Each structure stands twice: as C-alpha cells, then as structure tokens.
Amino acid sequence: MYSIETDKKWQAKWEETSLYKFDDNNLDKKLYVLEMFSYPSGSKLHAGHWFNYAPVDSWARLKKMQGYNVFQPMGFDSFGLPAENYAIKTGIHPSDSTEKNIATMEKQLKSMGAMFNWENEVITCRPEYYKWNQWLFLQLYKHGLAYRKNAPVNWCPSCKTVLANEQVQDGFCERCGTEATKKDLTQWFFKITDYSEELLQCLDKLDWPEKTKAMQRHWIGKSTGTNVTFKVADSDIEFSVFTTRVDTLFGVTYVVLSPENTLVDKLTKEEYKDEVEKYKESAKKQSEIERQSITREKTGVFSGSYAINPINGRKVPIWIGDYVLNTYGTGAVMAVPAHDERDFAFATKYKLPIERVIEGGDSLPYVEHGKMINSGEFNGLTTKEGKEAVTKKLESMGLGSGKVNYRLRDWLISRQRYWGTPIPIVYCEKCGIVPVPEDQLPVELPYNVEFSPDGKSPLLKSEEFMNTTCPCCGGPAKREADTLDTFVCSSWYYLRYVDNKNSEKPFDKAKIDKMLPVDMYVGGPEHACMHLLYARFITKALRDMGFLDFDEPFLSLRHQGIILGPDGQKMSKSKGNTISPDDCIQEYGSDVFRMYLMFGFDYSEGGAWNDDGIKSISKFVDRIERTISSVKEIIESGDTGKTSMDAAEKELNYTRNFSIKSVSEDANKFQFNTSIARIMEFTNALSKYIQQKDKNISLLKDTVIDFVKIIAPFAPHFAEEQWESLGKSYSIFNEKWPDFEPNALIRDEAEIAIQINGKIKAKINVSTNLKEDQIKELSLSNEHIKSLLDGKDIKKVIVVKGRLVNIVAK
Ligand code: ANZ
Ligand code: ZN
Fold first, then answer.
1. Are strands 223-232 and 300-308 parallel, antiparallel or unpaired?
2. Amino acid 74: pLDDT
3. What pLDDT, on a 0 to 100 scale, did the predictor assign at position 565?
4. What range(s) does the Methionyl/Valyl/Leucyl/Isoleucyl-tRNA synthetase anticodon-binding domain occupy (predicted)?
5. DSSP state letter for 445
C-alpha cells in the first residue's frame, strides 16, 4: 500500500542515482522551470508553498518525460522583514533563526519529492550571495542608475523603515498593514524610470496573465499629452503645466500649483502670504492617496498672482491646491472646470468661471471627447485633431510641446533595518561619496548588533562597522548604515542559480545566455508591480551594461491561487484553521497531498480546504493500486491469445488514447484538476475491462504501461512503485511520455445520457452513425425510461448528438 514509506524509498533512490541532475551537455532542450523562492519567516512550509511548488513540479515532470532537460532550482529569500520580525519577536538573532528555519524548510521541501536541483541552491543572506548584490549595486552606481537624493519618502511607523512606492498599497504598508506616512530623507534610488517605455513595450510579447500585464501597464502609467507654458503677468517668471487635454486650452479659467511647488513662495502676494503658509502646513499632513481621492472635497487658496494663457492671452488667477501633486507632471495644472470633474468641483466651490469649449453631453462637466467650440481658429476640430493642432501651434510659438509622462517612480532601495545587504558605500569628508572597490567585497554584515528597529539604521550603533578608511584617500570615513531592500536580492537570483558557485563573478555570461530566459515562472499574483517589475528592470540594466544578452527574465508566467482554511478564511494560526502539510503527508503520503491540491482546486483560483477531498483522493490512489495489481495478476496468469478488438477492447483503447491526449493538453495548460479527472475515468475504464471474461492480454499490457506513465507526473513516488511492481526498469521518469493514436479516437459508438426534465436517468451506447430521430426513438423505447414516463405527457425531446437526450415531460 502506498504510504510515506514509499515516498522515502524513492526519494532515497532518486538522490542516490542523481535522477534529476541537470544535463549541461543538452542545452538545446533545456527547460528552466522556476517557482518563486520562499522566505524563511519562522513558520514552516504551509499549504500555500505546496500549492505553488508541487503542481509545478508535476508540470516539469511531464516536460521531462516529453524529452526536456529540466532545470528547477530552489533557494531562500532570507534577508528582510519577515525573518527580522520573527527574530525580534523571539529574541533570537536573525542569522541563527534564519539558518535554522532554512534547514527545516529544506527538509520539508525534500519530503515533497520535487525535482529540485539542490546543488544550485541560492541563499540570499549568505555573504557568497550578497557580495554579488553589492556588486550589482556598484555596477548600477557606475552607470548612473543608482543615486542618492533627499525626497519625501514613504515611511512605515510600525516597521520603522522607508518603503518603496510599490510596497505601499492604497496608502498602507504592504508588510504590516499600518498606514504609511511621509518623511523627508536622503535615500538611495535605482533609476528604473530610465526603462519605463521599454518595460511597457515588452509586456506585449510576454506569455503572462493578462491581468498582471494590465497591472504593470497601469503602474508604469504612460500618459501622452502636452506641456504648456504660462507666463506670470507682470513678472518674468513662467511655468509649465502638463495636460492630456490641450484641446480644452481655451476653456482654462484658472491654474493651480501644488503646495510644494517651489514657485509658490515667489508668486504669492504679500497680503495672501499668511493664508498660503497655513495651507502649505495643512497639506503636509495629507497623504498623496487622500489628496488624489475623487470624493474628497477640493480645497485651495488664491496666490494673488495671474498667469497668461498662451493661446488667447487671457489673464487667469493662479491658485494653490492640494489636489495637484508635486510628484507628477510639472506640479501645476491648467484648470478646465467645464470638462474636468476635479476642476469643476473646485470652481464651483470658489466661484470661478466655468466655460464650455467642447460640444456634447447635456450637463457639465462634460469629460468625454467632442468637437471644439469657443476656441477661435480651432472650432470644429475633434478632440484628437485639436490636441495635435493646438500642440503644433504652441510649439511654433515656443510655448509648449508634446510630452509623455509616466507614473512610475524610481525605486527606493535603502532601508533602515539590520537584516539586509549593507550598501557598499563609504562617506569621506574629503572625497564625499565613495563606492567600495569591488575587490573589497563583500562588506560583511556584522553579527553583534542591537537589531531592534528604532527608526534609525541599527548598523549606526556598530562603531566597528561604521568606522572605516576611505578607499580613495585612506583617511577616516563612515560606512553607509542603511541596507538594501530585499527586493534587490530577488531581482536577479534567477541568474545566480545557474552559476551559484562562481566565486569570481556573479555569473558567467555564456552560461546564463544559454540557460535564460526562464521558460516558466510561477508564483503569487501579489508580486505584479514589485518583484516582477524590478526583475525585468534589472535584467534590462544588466543587458545594457553588457553582462547578458536577453531582454526579459521570464517568458511565461503563471500564478497560483490561495488555499484557504476549511472555513473559507485565510489560513492563520490565530484562527486555528491551518492545514499542516507535514501532518497530511504523514497520514496520506506526499503524492496524495499533491494530487488533492491538483484535483481539488483550479490552479489559478485556489479555494477552501476540504478534508473529505483529501480522503477521497487517498481512496482513489488505493483504487488505482488495486486495479493495477489485478491487471498484473491477469497478465501473469497467461495470455488468452485473444487479439481481436471487439467493442470492449475498442472502448478501453478509446479511453486510453483519449486520456493521453487530454492529460497532455490539460496539464500543459496548468489545468491539473481536469487532467486528474481524466485519469479517474481511465481507472474506471480499466477496472471495467478487467471484469470482461475474454481479455486481450497484449492490449492490457500496453494499456497499463500508458496508465502508469500518465499518472507519474501527478503521483511520482507512487508511480515509481507501480512501475517497479510491473517489472519495469528504473526510472519511469526516464520513459517517454506516451503519444495518443488519433485513429483510436474515432468512435463508432458513444455513450449518451438520457435525461428526464434535466436529470440523468439512464445511459445508453449508441452508434455514432445514428440520426437524431433514431436516437430519440431508442431513448424513448428504453425500458427504464418507459417506466419512468408512465402516465406522463411528453412535451418535448431535445437531442444533443453524441452527448444527451433530454425529455421534457409533465
Ligand atoms: C487640463 C485638463 C482638462 C485635464 C480636461 C484633464 C481634463 P493622466 O492621464 O493621469 O496623465 N494633472 C496633470 N498634472 C497633475 C498633477 N501634478 N496633479 C494632479 N493632476 C494633474 O492625467 C493628466 C491630467 O491630470 C492633466 O490633464 C491634468 O488635468 C491633470 F478636460 O489638464 B488635465
Ligand atoms: Zn576620502
């Protein structure tokens, strides 16, 4: 009987024979299959990890049997907040707890029996890895893609560190859910914005979920419009606004600057200074999210100055309002209250003029496109034509030009936390910012540091770390005390896997050019605008710096859904609804656990755990085992000599070939649940056939071989065991995946269901040559159906050829 002992037996054999060792000599058929690596946060592997890894391993096994040379590495994203927070909670040093957790998780992962290439493991918190993280930082710095600036940045008061824009979701810290605030700090950034356009364009050619691509497009936020220059009346000051609707330029009745715009002080007239100062103070307390909210009441103050609309010379008041963000466009907008919601609300509140310049709609604001009116020489042009014509005119006047803006901001990568890669920078009073020379890497993270966060970088407290000598002049210097965002570690780990033992370089160019891009990447959808964007950027940056020759890291991407507790809630220890993979595999064996995950859920959707579900899979596996063992007995008891293909043989052969075809196609598309449903049907067909008196033994022999082969990816240990019991030579995973025989799929008989009022009452086999009328007749003459219809009135009979007959009766 299959059990965890079967798992252990085959795991030992696989390891002993290096069955899954990647073949460096067969790169033409390489298939790089990657699952997002996990972070050892303290808790053990949970059902979600399994759901990410095990079905993907089944997919990879199918590919291996189809002749691919599979590379499927695994590692640990072991720096960062989860590990550090766990350490803070338990008081155990993050380095100790992390190493211990990694050991536990490795053991658990091995019990899954996946084809992981452990010899390629990457652990990001070890100096062998983060040395190259520092190297990456230095390359970006050398090429102007890493820089330091003072900026208002997102701050999480609970994690006590800055956060990248991507890590603030709807205003809250992505890690702990605390509302993020703003702080003015000098921080390090990576210049991802240099790649905005390419990051956007290349999305089109990626085989990724559409939703994820749409999220990235939205996050990059390309916006095509016009910068328009307004001169300030009675002054030589001028400023630009960014607009996507320059066709409404004649409708501008005022302009608005953001409170942080540096021109505000210069433009504010004496008598308005007090009020403007007060307004600027209050704006500081609002988050950008609040300021952008459509429902929030728009506020503003008048500056006392006026600007000149370049298109018609009209003098319009300059206001200051916090619905204008300083971090987007030019930090100033032209207001067209007749055609923009926010401007309309603002103008109504402050009694500013509202003038229509686009025809259409019954009421204002009218925000759609239309024909230009009240716009002088441009009257009659459509919005599209108008945008072009007005921009051209402004260009000829030297007062404007076409402009593309992106919402994407540079990636903030410094963190005021201990458990991360030290940023390899030294500050010298004489030489300023000095990068640590490459031959002095790694800058090691010191062990003896008080790591509890207090808002300042914990490394500041380590004199031994902080005080150093300047690599330039040899004088006294201080190290950078911040550490790198852990998303830097994960932005290139897939490159290191290929060449993880290289001590000279982060990776060998020739090697990774052969092994990458990753062919199939699988992980959670929550990474859409973080990890998946950063990794694309780093790949492109490394390409432009000459370290690799491809454009995109991940050609195909799939997301797994979330496994919820039996109560339909997110699994959590406090709710007591967690499912322990360890307990499950102890009780049922890892293949049953794996198969249940694949059969019980749509892979990309996930769903609620169901104990009955795993029990029924366990019974199903037993049933397969019994069926195979009966088949074996029959085969061993001698050949009957029957070679003909009668109806029963044809039926079995049909199911066999249909299963091969469907399982190959469905599993390839990550539709594991339907793949397993087909295997269930195959099992039924096989056990039905062996009850037959007169059996075709040679057909049975061939069939059972295919049967075990197509089970193999989904229940790998179990299938090895069955394969061995059939007397076949090790290993089934070196066998070729079966092909189906198209001729066997042409049926001359098909089973059809007979329904009465939509409920199935009987099943009959009919020749596929029959006409609808004949099928109808056959159904109505079925004895069982006849008895059920007794005394009823037949209203209608619907025939769906090859599938069913529905009799509507009262
Ligand atoms: C005048 C106008 C008239 C606008 C109209 C819209 C409709 P996207 O698509 O997001 O790029 N805008 C520009 N800079 C802004 C800032 N820093 N803060 C807040 N709003 C800003 O949006 C571009 C539009 O958002 C611009 O076009 C501008 O308003 C506003 F009938 O200009 B529009
Ligand atoms: Zn110096």
1. antiparallel
2. 96
3. 92
4. 658-773
5. P
Contact 689, 695 (CB under 8 A): yes
573 marked ligand binding residue:
yes
Q: What is the model's pLDDT at position 768?
A: 80
How far is residue 55's CA from residue 254's CA, in Å, rounded to a whole number? 59
Ligand nearest to the CA of 428: 2
- The domains found in the chain, sorted by start residue, are 222-406 (3.90.740.10), 611-744 (1.10.730.10), 747-809 (3.10.20.590)
Measure the CA–CA gap between 513 and 547, rounded to whole angstroms: 9
In the chain, which residues have pLDDT < 50?
A: none
- DSSP for 355-366, written as a single string: ---B--SSSS--
Which of 223, 228, 242, 369 to probe ligand 1 with, by most ligand atoms within 8 A of CB?
Answer: 242
* 329 Cα nearest atom in ligand 1: 14
Q: Whose Cα sits closest to atom 29 in ligand 1?
A: 243
Q: What are the CB-based long-range contacts (under 8 Å, 24+) for 208-213?
A: 208/554, 208/556, 208/557, 209/525, 209/557, 209/558, 209/559, 209/604, 211/525, 212/525, 212/528, 212/532, 212/557, 212/559
Residue 547's contacts (CB-CB under 8 Å, 6 or more residues apart) are 139, 506, 507, 509
Distance 434 CA to ligand 2 centre (A): 7
* Cα pseudo-dihedral 568, 619, 4, 607, rounded to 10: -20
Q: What is the pLDDT of residue 778?
A: 87
Global pTM exceeds 0.85: yes
Dmax (CA) of the chain: 109
Residues with CB under 6 A from ligand 1: 223, 242-245, 248, 324-325, 328-329, 331, 333-334, 336, 339-340, 405
Chain segment 220-241, per-residue pLDDT in tens? 999 999 999 999 999 999 999 9
Is there a contact between 732 and 720 (Cβ–Cβ < 8 Å)?
A: yes
Write out the E strands in 36-180: 69-71, 75-76, 122-123, 146-156, 161-163, 168-169, 172-173
